[in-house]
Design brief:
Layout lengths: L26 H10 E6 L4 E3 L7 E7 L2 E6 L5 E7 L4 E2 L2 H5 L6 E4 L3 E7 H10 L1 H26 L3 H16 L4 E2 L2 H8 L3 H13 L3 E4 L2 E4 L2 H8 L2
Antiparallel strand pairs: 1-8, 2-7, 3-6, 3-8, 4-5, 4-7, 9-11, 10-11
Helix pairs in contact: 5-8, 6-7
Length: 229
């Protein structure tokens, strides 16, 4: 279980809230939101929820990163999204009334706030701005997901890796990409051995540099050309 003795973050002082679905809340709405949430510390590799479980609420990322993934028939993970600061995880399942179709696990130490299902649905019912923001995000996500799947399905593994590194750089921003080789392979959709070989090729082509498991992008334009984007 998460350690609830970790530092408490208020919605008013949360820098990540500004880039979240709650970013447009007025002072009174922020105060109400703060009264409905709990703030917890999660260690690396702790699950937020697992595929097949029933949704209890939503998770707001104050700091850290979370992988969203599904498992294939042989148990292999396919990472479909990496959530970062400011993202709300798990709200899609709120509206379907069905168990989670995916799992979510922390990739690093995280500070995450939780809002229970009934409180979150009340917020959606009473706040048109939040409701419209969710509708916009869902529709944008559907279009982006269709484009992503189409692009990835039509690319070679080498192209997919280049494309994935560009996407991950946008998620990690000023930090170096920090994923295990297995997680990166599961994001790209390939075997770990193949990924390691291709990373070595990219290093020799001066596209990237590795620092232990961290990856530094040296030539983004070069990766774009390799990806065919």
């Amino acid at each position: 279980m998460p350690d609830k003795s970790h530092r408490h973050v208020t919605c008013e002082t949360c820098k990540s809230r500004q880039s979240s679905l709650f970013g447009s809340f007025c002072d009174d709405e922020v105060e109400g939101l703060d009264s409905k949430k709990t703030c917890s510390y999660y260690k690396k590799n702790q699950p937020l929820f697992i595929e097949g479980s029933l949704p209890r609420g939503v998770f707001c990322l104050n700091s850290g990163k979370v992988k969203i993934f599904a498992r294939g028939e042989e148990g292999k993970e396919q990472i479909i999204h990496l959530a970062a600061d400011g993202e709300i995880v798990g709200f899609r399942a709120m509206f379907s009334g069905e168990p989670y179709k995916v799992s979510a696990t922390t990739l690093e130490e995280c500070n995450i706030c939780f809002i229970g299902k009934s409180d979150f649905l009340d917020l959606v019912d009473t706040n048109p701005t939040l409701r419209n923001g969710i509708m916009k995000e869902l529709s944008t996500e559907l279009a982006d997901r269709a484009t992503f799947i189409t692009n990835m399905a039509q690319k070679s593994v080498r192209e997919r890796l280049a494309f994935s590194l560009i996407l991950l750089q946008d998620i990690y921003k000023e930090e170096m990409i920090n994923l295990t080789r297995e997680d990166l392979a599961n994001f790209v959709g390939t075997a770990t051995e193949t990924l390691i070989r291709l990373l070595k090729d990219f290093k020799e082509e001066d596209l990237i540099q590795t620092h232990a498991r961290k990856i530094e992008i040296l030539d983004k334009e070069g990766l774009l050309r390799v990806s065919g984007a």
